[in-house]
Amino acid sequence: MKQNQASSATPATAAKPTAATAVNSDEQTLYQNAITALTAKNMMKQQKNYKPT
């Protein structure tokens, strides 16, 4: 699943409505943690692939 810089924020945005309608705060926390983890993973991948020109 390759993503460029511009679309890196898409997964977090797409998951937000689900998190907002979560049944309880525990569930909401789980969604939020998953989003954060995915975003961090994405950023790390971008950092690793970074090649100064």
Shape: rod-shaped
Outline the biggest β-sheet. none
- List how many beta strands DSSP finds: 0
Listing every helix as H and every strand as E from the N terminus to the C terminus, the arrangement reads: HH
State the helical fraction.
55-70%
How many helical stretches? 2
Strand content: under 5%
Structural class: mainly alpha
Low-confidence stretches: 3-10
Q: What assembly state would you assign to the polypeptide chains in this entry?
A: single chain
What is the CA-atom radius of gyration, in angstroms?
13 Å
Question: What does this 3D model show about the protein?
Answer:
The protein is mostly helical and 53 residues long. Helix content is 68%, strand content 0%. The chain has 2 helices and no strands. It is rod-shaped.
Task: Provide a short characterization of the protein structure.
The protein has 53 residues and is an all-alpha fold.
List keywords for this structure.
53 residues, disordered N terminus, mainly alpha
